[in-house]
Design a protein that fits this description.
This protein is 45% helix and 18% strand. The chain has 317 residues and is α/β, with parallel strands linked by helices. The chain has two domains: 4-229, Alpha-Beta Complex (Spore Coat Polysaccharide Biosynthesis Protein SpsA, Chain A); 238-316, no CATH class. The longest helix has 21 residues, at 286-306.
């Protein structure tokens, strides 16, 4: 479903940005997400949205929104059975026409000015394939819970993200990207193999590959509102779900370690063991906890011998 014919043609003075929105069972939030794209003043943009097999009224809400606003910008919409987030992102990217792809989520929303800020970064940093920003954290009603998703929710040291070395270190050991805060050059997907289908931890896998080639940049600006609500918050406290996610994270770390040079390869191998310790702890297997913690501390010490000192990273930033 496309409303492109109803939108007046625009002679683009700026790059086209495609906002990619995978939608799944977010009937309460999806219209706010779409509103936020329309409200952003960036002049040359489109929405590409797929309902990934929702069982609630997400589809109806999207169709209602398009009927009201589809003449104001191009909207590409598809509805199909559930295939998962990675497959949906790959399909969204294939449908997109923009030079830059802004990742969205149907329960979150963009903050004004974020599109222009991220486009400006990529235009002035041509060797960067993607840029991430920060987020604010809101509740179901949109009330602000935290001013910085990276710092307040994930405890990240944002100074690490201000240099290539720091980004490599942070993506490996202090992954703190919450919400849809990334903008990607579409051309980067030609060499990055896109998103790995079948993974739940698709974002960490994707950004590890970017960080390994120094393709990821950072701006200390909140570009989206990351919404915490019952459907995404409770899962993080479900023990079996946490174990499944951790097992997959460990698999991702093992699979991507070869992409990095030393000492970052050893740092990622250390992450394999800290993840293993967390799995064993949740399973109440105390000997494996001790083994994995010993290996983690040993590998971390080895990696730190080759890492620049923290003050050197801050100076580079």
């Amino acid at each position: 479903m496309s409303v492109a014919d109803a939108v007046p043609s625009i002679a683009p003075a700026v790059p086209l940005v495609s906002v990619l929105i995978p939608a799944f069972n977010h009937e309460r939030f999806v219209q706010r997400c779409l509103d936020s794209v329309l409200e952003d003043l960036y002049p040359h943009k489109e929405i590409v949205i797929i309902d990934d097999g929702s069982s609630d009224r997400t589809h109806d809400r999207i169709v209602e929104w398009i009927a009201r606003h589809g003449n104001k910008l191009r909207v590409e919409y598809a509805r199909r059975g559930n295939k998962g987030i990675a497959a949906t992102l790959n399909e969204l990217a294939a449908r997109a026409r923009g030079e830059f792809l802004r990742l969205g989520a149907s329960d979150d929303y963009l903050l004004p000015g974020g599109l222009e800020t991220q486009v400006r970064y990529l235009m002035t940093h041509p060797r960067k394939q993607a840029v991430v920003g920060d987020s604010i954290v809101v509740d179901e009603r949109g009330l602000i819970l935290h001013g910085s998703g990276m710092h307040d929710l994930h405890g990240a040291n944002k100074k690490l993200y201000r240099s290539d070395e720091g980004i490599r270190r942070a993506v490996i050991s202090q992954w703190a990207i919450g919400g849809p805060v990334a903008m990607i050059r579409k051309s980067a997907l030609d060499t990055l193999d896109r998103w790995t289908e079948g993974l739940r931890i698709d974002d960490w896998d994707f950004f590890l590959r970017l960080a390994a080639r120094d393709g990821l940049g950072f701006i200390d600006v909140s570009v989206c509102a990351y919404r915490i609500h019952g459907d995404n918050f409770s899962k993080t406290r479900h023990r079996e779900t946490r174990i499944v996610n951790l097992v997959e994270s460990r698999h991702v770390a093992v699979r991507r370690a070869h992409l990095f040079e030393e000492p970052y390869r050893t740092l990622l191998r250390a992450q394999v063991h800290i993840i293993g310790a967390k799995i064993a702890f949740l399973q109440r297997r105390w000997l494996p906890v001790a083994f994995h913690m010993t290996m983690y501390l040993s590998l971390l010490a080895i990696a730190k011998l080759g890492l620049p000192a923290a003050h050197a990273v801050a100076k580079e930033a």
